[in-house]
Design goal:
Layout lengths: L12 H16 L4 E7 L3 E6 L8 E5 L22 E8 L3 H15 L5 E8 L1 H14 L9 E4 L2 E4 L1 H18 L15 E6 L3 H14 L9 E4 L15 H6 L1 H18 L18 H25 L2 E4 L1 E7 L2 E6 L4 E11 L3 E3 L7 H4 L16 E4 L3 H12 L4 E5 L9 H13 L3 E4 L3 E6 L5 E5 L4 E4 L1 E4 L3 E3 L32 E3 L11 H16 L13 E3 L5 E4 L3 H8 L4 E8 L2 H5 L7 E8 L5 E8 L3 H13 L4 H6 L30
Parallel strand pairs: 4-5, 8-9, 8-13, 9-10, 13-23, 15-16, 15-21, 16-17
Antiparallel strand pairs: 1-2, 2-3, 4-6, 6-7, 11-12, 12-13, 14-22, 18-19, 19-20, 24-25, 25-28, 26-27, 27-28
Helix pairs in contact: 2-4, 2-13, 5-12, 7-8, 7-10
């Protein structure tokens, strides 16, 4: 239960606590309060004596209404407030400060714009001096790190902050309506749902919603799915299915496979194949590109057939919002049509970003184009060090093309940096060139048709293809303002709450288009299916973005689930985690005389939770296949003991995580020997 309490003209925190305690005794539970502690200016956590009825812990929210001369503030620190700024102050290297920051940033990413986090650190002596004055200013006794305020009002230290964040998340979820039930079930709209975007998430949602709305498929479609591909600057377009099928996961994995196949052929004589197989010449680009594109066209055809057979109305048209229930559709011939729906779901995804430099759009390509190039890319410059950049650079090198990566700062930002650096070292050893600390300033084309990439250090690289892989931008220019849908001012992506609802109650958003969402195909698919179940199947499950496994298909594949080592240290504290690791050589590489002990895996555990496994990272062939099974165990709460008790399958790579003994903290070499 909740109560709204107005307290005027108090003199101290003790006064407030007294009033709240009295209310709890007489109004709410009429039972003894054993302990009550303030959490900020407007929240109190309390526990009851054993004689209290049922729930041992509860939470009371009240609003303070200040008067002239009083210390009362507004509702700034209410957990359910629409907006809030959490300021976390501390000294450099403080594990409690880092833990509070890590949790706060995680909660902020799920808050749908309700919460933002700011931080400031000093050397320890300066912080001690600062916190003494700040404590006096807030009329509190607080000398430790962190010192946390919410909307300018004192909140507490690390434990207080973690408790408040937990309560905020709980209140947001409890207060969020799972569906927009203000919308009447009976209506005169053309459809019950319009899905704008036919990528992985949009398709999954459309099919799931149609199945629930028209289980027998014998009535007019109640779900309409719009999909339209705007040509890339070089003019590339593709069929139905979105980024993953056409210009993402599918062609990327197939080109990666082509490069692995070529590498296998080059080492085949070690396994008895005739030397002639290694002298077959360069990769025939037209063949590999043609076969992969033919497979994609089959997927396009199958996707259209699948949604139509699932009683979804498919329109190859560009959608633009006119109001909260109306979408204007424009087909490839320019013909316009207006349709309406009770609900609208936005699933437009994103497109590759171009740098704002001369010649970029005129002469450069992106992942929208590289997989369908009519001619072989030849000597290629890849701009960026994201996973898309390194994946593309990896298969281009593997197919025999001279490839240079321009890396402005670090590789694979957001991923474990130890793993990222092993990847780039391996790629460099395999023939990919890296130029670090530089950016392109211009792309020029000479009379012979060669491209020249001018760099920030004054150098110039001659090449045949320039591939920009510098991140993606939301494909959100569909007149969102007309329907009142808000976007994040920095990312430009759509802001949603914990149930994927936008600022307009009957409009939802899923996939890469949402702010702070994970840009992964399986996440979009799962989110779409769960949303359909909540809207039309009575479901209540929300999409969790925690412990989501993913794999980067670089030449040495990288699979991971859970935080990076850097984030684990920030979240748990370095002294509270144990890292088990090993370097190894796959058995298949030994006869081929491939490099020894370049593959690597590590298991990160929480000491305070009986060595619960909180993260798994692996660099090896077939990393994704290994990771998928491991991630199930980790999501289920497996400990290091569970891994140790599992019998390994010999001889495999995966058996290694059942026999990890070397810890990083021991300083013992992680190199593997034997079989």
């Amino acid at each position: 239960s909740k109560a709204t309490v107005s307290v005027l003209n108090w003199d101290s925190r003790e006064h407030k606590s007294y009033i709240v305690a009295a209310l709890l005794r007489r109004v709410v539970w009429q039972g003894p309060v054993r302990r009550l502690s303030a959490i900020g200016a407007a929240h109190y956590r309390f526990s009851f004596a054993s004689s209290a009825p049922q729930a041992p812990r509860a939470f009371l929210q009240f609003r303070t209404m200040g008067t002239k001369g009083s210390k009362a503030g507004g509702d700034a620190s209410a957990a359910g407030a629409d907006t809030g700024v959490l300021n976390i102050y501390g000294y450099e290297g403080c594990s409690f400060h880092m833990r509070a920051m890590a949790r706060a940033n995680d909660v902020a990413s799920q808050s749908g714009g309700r919460l933002s986090v700011e931080t400031q650190t000093w050397p320890r002596p300066e912080f001690k001096e600062w916190v003494a004055g700040e404590s006096q200013k807030h009329d509190v006794k607080h000398g430790s790190s962190p010192f946390v305020t919410l909307n300018g009002k004192y909140l507490g230290g690390c434990d207080d902050t973690l408790a408040w964040l937990d309560s905020a998340v709980a209140e947001w979820k409890a207060g969020a309506k799972l569906i927009d039930d203000d919308e009447p079930e009976t209506h005169n709209y053309d459809y019950d749902m319009i899905v704008v975007g036919g990528g992985s998430g949009g398709m999954a949602l459309s099919k799931a919603a149609a199945t629930l709305l028209t289980p027998n498929g014998d009535v007019d479609p109640k779900v309409c799915c719009l999909d339209f591909v705007k040509p890339s600057p070089p003019g590339s377009t593709w069929g139905f299915g979105g980024t993953c099928v056409n210009v993402g996961c599918i062609p990327k994995k197939l080109f990666h496979t082509a490069a692995i196949t070529r590498d296998t052929i080059m080492h085949a004589p070690k396994y008895g194949a005739p030397e002639e197989v290694t002298k077959a010449g360069e990769t025939v680009w037209e063949t590999v590109r043609g076969n992969i594109q033919q497979h994609i066209k089959k997927l396009n055809f199958g996707a259209v057939a699948e949604v139509r057979s699932g009683n979804v109305k498919y329109k190859n048209a560009l959608g633009e919002l006119k109001d909260a229930h109306t979408v204007e559709c424009t087909n490839k011939k320019g013909k316009k049509e207006t349709i309406t729906a009770r609900r609208i779901v936005l699933a437009m995804g994103g497109r590759p970003a171009y740098p704002d430099i001369p010649g970029a759009r005129e002469y450069g390509v992106t992942s929208d184009d590289i997989f369908s190039l009519e001619k072989a890319p030849g000597k290629t410059v890849v701009v960026g060090a994201s996973y898309i950049a390194l994946e593309c650079a990896g298969f281009l090198t593997g197919l025999g093309y001279d490839t240079t990566v321009l890396m402005r700062s670090i590789p694979l930002r957001g991923f474990d940096q130890e793993m990222a650096n092993i990847i780039t070292d391996f790629m460099e050893a395999e023939g990919t060139h890296f130029k670090k600390g530089v950016t392109p300033t211009e792309v020029k084309k000479d009379e012979a048709g060669k491209l020249h990439v001018v760099l920030s250090n004054g150098e110039s690289i001659e090449c045949d293809t320039v591939l920009f892989a510098m991140g993606r931008v939301p494909d959100a220019k569909i007149n969102l303002e007309a329907a009142g849908v808000k976007t994040h001012p920095k990312s430009g992506k759509i802001v949603v709450d914990s149930v994927e609802r936008t600022s307009t109650p009957n409009i939802y958003a899923i996939g890469d288009i949402i702010h702070e969402g994970l840009e992964l195909t399986p996440v979009a698919i799962q989110t779409g299916r769960l949303l359909a179940k909540r809207l039309y199947g009575g479901g209540s499950q929300l999409m969790s973005q925690e412990m989501v496994p993913t794999t980067v298909f670089t030449p040495l594949e990288y699979g991971c689930v859970g935080p990076s080592e850097e984030d684990a240290i920030k979240q748990y504290g370095e002294s509270n985690i144990e890292i088990y690791h090993t370097k190894f050589t796959p058995l298949e590489w030994t006869v081929a005389d491939k490099p020894a002990n370049v593959c690597y895996l590590k298991l990160i555990t929480s000491k305070k939770e009986n060595e619960k496994v909180i993260a798994f990272h692996i660099l090896s062939p077939n990393a994704g296949e290994i990771l998928q099974g491991v991630s199930v165990a980790i999501r289920a709460g497996a400990t290091k003991a569970h891994f140790d008790d599992t019998v390994g399958i010999h001889p495999t790579i995966a058996e290694l995580f059942t026999d990890l003994k070397v810890t990083k903290s021991s300083g013992v070499s992680a190199d593997q020997g034997g079989c």
